[in-house]
């Protein structure tokens, strides 16, 4: 899936035969780019008013991969994630420069309508946020507003497959008309995932999807993410390095608005090539 | 910096603890006292109003055995016939000993002017009773009514009494003959205003109030909700929207008489709408109610959690769909609360309606939005201002009806709120 470039010298070597990049150097190290990417981000700067939240981030999101983004609080990973489906549009003072492409199309281009875009790039939020409606209506809402279902049977089928994909079907198939807000936290989050995949997106963005869940619910969602990878590209922001290690193929480390290091998850966690990454994953700060 | 040992800290805490509890106890006592005082005043208000007004729901009637004389009642000209004469001759036959103009006038005054109208209605409704004799209960005059309800005392010197000694004798005789009694006052609920207290009813003002409030609700609710939604969800945040917001907040505090004058200038003088009609009253009250609805509506919209908005936007709902499908339903209970507060204000409003002529004396019950009408608070004001003593109880009774109306309106609102809230 990913071609190794000359940048990752000595990947297979046991001993370190490369220099660890010093803390002062904020250029991205590792392999930010992949062949045949689903999304490409180039030179992204994000400003909140006069304050710059993200500096010059370039990274690709591959097909059928899980890219996890880690880093200390306030490092800009959530901000970056929200740029990917233009959720930051709703914040008046937020300004974005650079180029983000989905399948080669600039999503910030003038001709792009943000409404269908968000159907293509779904999002799951930190706090489970089902609509205060029935379970069925929660999942059916997206297909309904986008006109994806020709009739009721069609819609029923979409709802069922989405809930099955989200691993929720068995638990709730007998109480579809009950409020989605009455489910447990983990179930709610999987309901939100079902809602996101009901509109058949290409990419799913997840903003700390397990931070409000207990370990068992977290395990459910993590299994689900691994399952969903077969069909979708997934970008996940997480505070848990173990989670990043468990679910993702590539990991990106953000630090104060800079993308410090991107690489295969295993390599980033075992052989970080930037001093800041090493500091973070060894628990020296953050 | 902190050189206290755990022991000394604990002592300091203990020392302050008593004071902390004392303050709390005082605060709770003051709160309870405030509640008690308000309850006491509310109780006083209710007791006085009910005490004064409940007698208005009964009315004194006198039984007359009317002979519908075919000579007096010309079938071809029924509307011009001498109905007062029928009443008077009957009274004379009841008390044949009464002689002299003055005494006769006093005798006629036992019975309300409405008696003649009642007979006319009976004859016009059914001409077959002409030539027969029928016993009819007709309303007594307001003074007899007051006396019979015990509000005029026999012990007062005659010159200071509205009921003279000779009339007392007649009333006593009527009573021994079972010709006078208190009955349910249906007139109060079916009639419009009248100069005669015993013929006056609240129905006209009630209809006027309902019509006016329908106009107010139909205009102010949709406009207010739409404005709140636009300002909160769609309008750009800049200098102009700030100015608009400040102005709306200021409008909520403008004295209502100013809205009345505005309505007079704009609706009546400029647009040429008729005076004294519920349509214009409703328009004026809409102006007054709008700020309340807009402000509470915006607060309700602001209270909708942002996570719901993000959820809707996140799966590709447009702004409009987000608002209509998710935000507005969640904000609806709050908006309804604001609306009901605004409507309750409108219900009790008098001043702005005076300037547009809804203070006129109107006997007919309004049937449409462009019939001359008055509203309940204005009716209360008019009655409270009337010299006849019998209007005192009518005023209190009208206040009771107004309060009942208010309570039922609020009950509907609470019911609607619960219904909206039930859908999670």
Give me some keywords for this one.
heterodimer, A: 286 residues, alpha/beta, Rossmann fold, 7-stranded mixed sheet, 24% strand, disordered N terminus, B: 424 residues, mainly alpha, MetI-like fold, 2 domains, 3-stranded antiparallel sheet, 16 helices
Topology:
The complex is a heterodimer of chains A (286) and B (424).
Chain A: E1 29-30, E2 37-48, E3 51-62, E4 66-70, H1 77-84, E5 94-102, E6 105-106, H2 114-120, E7 121-124, H3 135-146, H4 152-165, H5 169-172, H6 185-197, E8 203-207, H7 215-228, E9 233-237, H8 241-247, E10 250-255, E11 258-264, H9 265-270, H10 275-281
Parallel strand pairs in A: 1-11, 4-9, 4-10, 7-8, 8-9
Antiparallel strand pairs in A: 2-3, 2-5, 5-6, 10-11
Helix pairs in contact in A: 3-4, 3-6, 4-6, 6-7
Chain B: H1 6-53, E1 58-67, H2 83-94, H3 101-108, H4 114-125, E2 133-139, H5 142-148, H6 165-176, E3 180-184, H7 187-190, H8 203-234, H9 239-251, H10 256-270, H11 278-302, H12 306-314, H13 319-347, H14 351-355, H15 376-384, H16 391-422
Antiparallel strand pairs in B: 1-2, 1-3
Helix pairs in contact in B: 1-16, 2-4, 8-11, 8-13, 8-15, 10-11, 11-13, 12-13, 13-16, 15-16
Number of strands of chain B: 3
Strand content of chain A: 15-25%
Order of helices and strands of chain B: HEHHHEHHEHHHHHHHHHH
The computed structural class of chain A is alpha/beta
DSSP helical segment count of chain A: 10
Based on DSSP secondary structure assignment, what is the total number of beta strands of chain A?
A: 11
Any idea how many domains of chain B? 2
Largest sheet descriptor of chain A: 7 strands, mixed
